[in-house]
Design brief:
This protein has helices at residues 5-32, 40-50, 54-57, 59-71, 73-82, 84-103, 110-140, 160-184, 187-218, 220-228, 233-251, 255-277, 301-328; strands spanning 280-282, 292-293. The protein is mainly alpha-helical. It has one domain. Strands 1-2 form a two-stranded antiparallel sheet.
C-alpha cells in the first residue's frame, strides 16, 4: 500500500501537536495547580518543577506551527486569520506565563509575588482553554467561503461544543500536570497534590465522556466517519483504559506509570480526533465542499519531499535534546540559590 506524502504529513503534524500537548500540557497543568501550594517554599517548588523544561517544551509548538505553515499553508492562513484574536490571546497568555515565572522572584514583597502567582495560574488556564476552543471549532466545523476564508465572527467561536472542548482540554492538562508535580515533589505538598490528582481524574473523566458523546452524536461528519470506519472507536477504548490506569497507578503510588498513562490518554484522544476528521484539516460547515483537506490544502510535492528530509534531520535532534534535558533534571526538585 502506497502512503501519499499528504497523508504522511497529516500524521507527522499530528504527532508534533500531540508532542506539544504532552510536554507543554503538564506545564500548563502545574501552572493551574500553582495556587494549591500554600507556602512560599511550596510555590517555588511548583515553579521549579517545570523550571528547567518549560521553555524547551514550547519548541514543539514552534516546530508544529512551522511544519503547518510549510506543508499545509492554506490551513495555516485560514486558521490564524480566522482565529486571529484567539491566537493573539493565546500568545499573550504564553508571554504572561513566561514573565510570571521570570519576574516573580525579583522582589520579596508579598503583594508582588501574589500578583504573579495568580497571573501564572490564570494565564496557564487561559492558554489551555484557548487551545481546546480552537480544536473544538476545527472538529465541529467553521463557515468557510470558496476562497478558503473564514466567514464567521469571533463570538461564533464560543459555541457550546467548543467551550466544552476548552474545559475538557483544561481538565486534561491540569490532571496531567498534577501527576508530573507528584513525581517532582515530596512531603506534605506531594500528598496534597496526590489528593488533588484523584479529584482531577474524576473531573476529566466527566468532561471527556461528555465531549466524546457530544462529538459522536452531534458532529455529523465525525459520526459518518465512525460509521464507515468503526475501528476508530478503538481509540476511545484505549483512552478509557489509559484514564482508568491513571487513577489506579496514582492510588498505588506508581507516579511514573501514572504519568505515562496520562500521556497515553492524550495520544489516544488526539488519535480519535485525527482519525475522525481525516482527510479534513479544517471542516467547513454548513458547506463541506469548501473544507480544507490534505489534498487541496497541501504544498507542492517538491515542498513536501524537501520538508520530509529536513524533518528527518531536525526531529532526532529535538528528541535527543528533550531526552537529555529530562534525564539531567530527573528526580525530586530541590531549591538552591539559582532557583526561581
Amino acid at each position: 500500500m502506497t502512503v501519499h506524502l499528504e497523508t504522511l504529513w497529516f500524521v507527522l503534524v499530528g504527532i508534533l501537536f500531540t508532542g506539544y500537548a504532552i510536554l507543554d500540557g503538564f506545564d500548563f497543568g502545574v501552572g493551574m495547580l500553582h495556587l494549591v501550594a500554600k507556602t512560599e517554599e511550596e510555590r517555588r517548588l511548583m515553579m521549579n518543577a517545570i523550571g528547567p523544561v518549560w521553555d524547551g517544551n514550547e519548541v514543539w509548538l514552534v516546530t508544529a506551527g512551522g511544519a503547518l505553515f510549510a506543508v499545509f499553508p492554506d490551513v495555516y492562513a485560514t486558521v490564524f486569520s480566522g482565529f486571529y484574536l484567539g491566537v493573539v490571546a493565546f500568545l499573550a497568555a504564553l508571554i504572561f506565563r513566561a514573565v510570571a515565572i521570570e519576574f516573580r522572584g525579583k522582589l520579596v514583597a508579598p503583594a508582588w509575588r501574589a500578583f504573579w502567582d495568580v497571573s501564572f495560574c490564570l494565564s496557564s488556564f487561559l492558554a489551555s482553554f484557548l487551545l481546546g476552543l480552537v480544536m473544538g471549532n476545527l472538529v465541529r466545523g467553521i463557515p468557510l467561503g470558496p476562497g478558503k476564508e473564514y466567514l464567521g465572527s469571533f463570538s461564533a467561536l464560543f459555541n457550546p461544543y467548543a467551550i466544552l472542548m476548552g474545559v475538557t482540554v483544561s481538565a486534561l492538562f491540569v490532571m496531567h500536570g498534577s501527576i508530573y508535580a507528584v513525581i517532582k515533589t515530596e512531603g506534605e505538598l506531594h500528598k496534597r497534590i496526590l489528593r488533588w490528582t484523584n479529584r482531577l481524574v474524576i473531573l476529566f473523566t466527566v468532561c471527556a465522556v461528555s465531549d466524546i458523546l457530544m462529538t459522536i452524536f452531534y458532529v455529523p461528519h465525525i459520526t459518518q466517519r465512525i460509521k464507515s470506519h468503526p475501528m476508530i472507536l478503538l481509540a476511545v477504548f484505549f483512552s478509557t483504559a489509559a484514564i482508568v490506569s491513571v487513577a489506579r497507578q496514582a492510588r498505588l503510588g506508581r507516579d511514573v506509570q501514572a504519568f505515562l498513562s496520562s500521556c497515553t490518554a492524550i495520544i489516544t484522544l488526539t488519535a480519535f480526533i485525527g482519525l475522525g476528521m481525516f482527510p479534513n484539516l479544517v471542516y467547513s460547515a454548513p458547506h463541506p465542499e469548501y473544507s480544507l483537506t490534505i489534498q487541496n490544502a497541501a504544498s507542492s510535492t517538491k515542498t513536501l519531499s524537501t520538508m520530509l528530509v529536513i524533518t528527518s534531520i531536525g526531529m532526532p535532534l529535538v528528541l535527543a535534546y528533550t531526552a537529555v534535558v529530562y534525564w539531567i533534571f530527573r528526580g525530586k526538585v530541590k531549591l538552591d540559590k539559582s532557583s526561581y
